Each structure stands twice: as C-alpha cells, then as structure tokens.
C-alpha cells in the first residue's frame, strides 16, 4: 500500500475516532473510550506501527481540542497503537496485535499516564490507578476490532497475510 493510500486510510480512521468520540464510559478520572482501541488494532494491522501511532496522535489532538478527550488520551492510545503494530509486523498474527494493544495501553500507557495526570492535570492519583480503566477500554475496543477484522477476512474483504505487510 502506498504512503498516500496509508495516509488516506489513517485520515478516515481519525475521522471515525473523532465522530464517535462522544461514546465513552467514565471510570474514575479517565474515560473508557473503546472506539479508539478498536481503531488502534485495525490501523496497526492495516497500516503498521507508524501510521497507527499517527492516527492515535491525530485523533487525540482533535478530541482534546474539541473537549471530548483528556490529555490521558495521548499515552493511552499511542503506546497501544505502537505496540500492536510492532507485534503484528513481527509475528504476522492478529493475536499478537491484540496482546500489543492490551499491554501497550492497559499497562504501559496507564503507567505513562500517571505523570501526565499528576503533573499536567494536577490530579492526585496512585501510580497504577489507570491500569484497570485503561485495560477495560483497551480490551473492549481491541475485541471489537479483532471481531471486525476476522469477520471481514471470512468474507474476503480484508486480507491480513499480504507479503511485505500492509
């Protein structure tokens, strides 16, 4: 897939993420936003780690600017998108991308969110306070993304095993 096509698809993912940004579940000081994690997984598989992170970053910038997201959207989405893309590229397995999204967002992104909350948002939170809400959001979204990819693969509309990657 050419860079122009990747950028176009990434832009569509950003649009979907922004349009559906009103769908969230508040959990503590964070927002469970499964749509972003669904997009992370699909973008990681289709576009690779660079464009998946770019998609997560652009979506976060627009959501924060529009008031539908917080600064926690950055570490929560970008780390998961990156790890999902890296693991998918390495193992060519949807399960690896799924695990990458879960670990990247649910654990690493949650830990990185701590200084963002403490220093930039002036929230008094414990170091691991974001692990549960980030993991819930990531698991829900990644499962939806995984189900969507598998369904599309069965119909022949989505093919993940292309030589050289997508």
Automatic annotation (TrEMBL):
The keyword Repeat does not apply. Gene3D superfamilies: 1.10.1760.20. The chain crosses the membrane at residues 6-27, 39-62, 68-88, 95-121, 127-152. Signal peptide: none annotated. Keywords: Membrane, Transmembrane, Transmembrane helix. Pfam families: ThiW. This is Energy coupling factor transporter S component ThiW. It comes from Filifactor villosus. The gene is thiW.
């Amino acid at each position: 897939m050419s860079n122009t096509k990747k950028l176009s698809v990434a832009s569509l993912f950003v649009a979907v993420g922004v349009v559906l940004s009103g769908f969230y579940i508040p959990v503590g000081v964070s927002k469970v936003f499964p749509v972003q994690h669904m997009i992370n997984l699909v973008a990681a598989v289709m576009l690779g780690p660079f464009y998946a992170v770019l998609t997560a970053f652009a979506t976060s910038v627009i959501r924060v600017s529009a008031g539908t997201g917080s600064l926690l959207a950055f570490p929560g989405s970008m780390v998961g998108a990156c790890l999902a893309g890296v693991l998918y590229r390495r193992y060519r397995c949807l399960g690896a991308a799924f695990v990458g999204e879960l670990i990247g967002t649910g654990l690493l992104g949650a830990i990185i969110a701590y200084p963002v909350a403490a220093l930039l948002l002036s929230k008094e939170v414990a170091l691991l306070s974001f692990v549960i809400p980030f993991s819930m959001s990531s698991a829900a979204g990644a499962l939806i993304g995984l189900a969507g990819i598998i369904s599309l693969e069965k119909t022949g509309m989505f093919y993940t095993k292309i030589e050289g990657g997508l």
